[in-house]
Structure to design on (137 residues):
């Protein structure tokens, strides 16, 4: 699992603005994401003092979108750690396999959409941070 923080990036989701001022529409199709989508889920009603995530994946790739509100994503490659804020529904944060992630600082009404490359498989999770660090060496 040799992914690094430099492999994490934002993906611009096409935004179509209604000329009559009735709002915007964003579409994820074709090759916008760098993997085949196998599962979609979303987090909502997360208390602002709660943390979600707290794991890495061995193979799974993931893109996160703040559909509403905002939240922070702490990403860690075993050597470096940074915090990225998601607050735009037309920007997806791509997280490759082998990156530790934690979601925190949810605003009121925040909705986090996760678009992932595989179905749920418990054996793909690394839930202990020390085990994650050991997997990187």
């Amino acid at each position: 699992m040799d992914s690094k923080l430099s492999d994490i990036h934002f993906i611009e989701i096409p935004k179509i603005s209604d000329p009559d001022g009735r709002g915007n529409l964003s579409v994820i199709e074709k090759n916008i994401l760098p993997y085949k989508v196998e599962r979609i889920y979303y987090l909502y009603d997360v208390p602002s003092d709660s943390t979600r995530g707290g794991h890495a994946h061995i193979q799974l790739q993931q893109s996160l979108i703040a559909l509403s509100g905002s939240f922070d994503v702490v990403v860690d490659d075993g050597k470096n750690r940074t915090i990225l804020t998601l607050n735009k529904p037309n920007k997806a944060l791509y997280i490759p396999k082998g990156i530790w992630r934690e979601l925190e600082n949810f605003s009121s009404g925040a909705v986090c959409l996760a678009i992932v490359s595989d179905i749920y498989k418990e054996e793909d999770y690394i839930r202990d941070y020390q085990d994650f660090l050991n997997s990187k060496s």
